[in-house]
Amino acid sequence: MRGEVRELLPLHPDSVVPKLRSDWSVVYQVTFPNGKVDILPQDAIFHVRILSMDGLNGLDPITYFAREVLGEAIAADRQAQGMFKNGAKLSGVLSAEGTLNDDAYARIRDDWEKTYGGAENAYKVAILEGGLKFKEISMTNEQAQFLEQRKYKRAEMAGLYRIAPHKIGDLEHATFSNIEHQSQEHVTDCLMPYATKIEARIRVSLVPKARRGRVFAKFNMNALLRGDMAARANYYTRQIQNGVYSPNDVRELEDENPRDGGDIYLTPANMLIDGKMPAAPAKE
């Protein structure tokens, strides 16, 4: 209706292929669920390219940049599952003073694996008989390296999407003193770049040209930056009191509509002469 968007219908990415024509215009080849294939103009498709190498096709970070990383992470996860599924939590060696016969050896081995094997039997109290001794084995360098590798792969996968490590449960470098700043960095370094791309695409694809000066899309991040709002409020207060900003200047920075009488710039009282503003210098 009058060139305005009335609804958005989702299309699976695999069913849409963007194409660049000889006149540098972009069209989209769409395969609909009923098998029909149609060519749609650019203004009929709302396409947000978060990552792109050619400006035409959007890229999936995992598919194009992290297949090897993801494969190694999956392999490490399967290895860890095997370790906890088949290994005993009490990692060590049972030793006897004498030589065990086959029946005694088989009975002790089966009882030990049944009682203490697997993650579900972790931390049970071990009962030793017949002079048996248990010697705990510390973690080997290979096991320690395996755990460090899992941590590294987890952080590397998060980095592909600019996600802060503590947002995926990696609190190794998080403290009570820096967790707030890390959360703010997650908003400014991860969410805001994505939000900016979406806002720009909404402006181009969904807002009619005649209304772009008055209508715009903006994600409100204030709820995610509450810790930083106090600092911004103090900064704006000082700037208004010193006459640097007017209230409407601040409202514009905060994506708020201007208010009547909000374009006044204040002058601190200690800058007045006999209660009056100093005269402007004479023009030459």
TrEMBL record:
Domain of life: Bacteria
Protein name: Phage portal protein
Taxonomic source organism: Achromobacter denitrificans (Alcaligenes denitrificans)
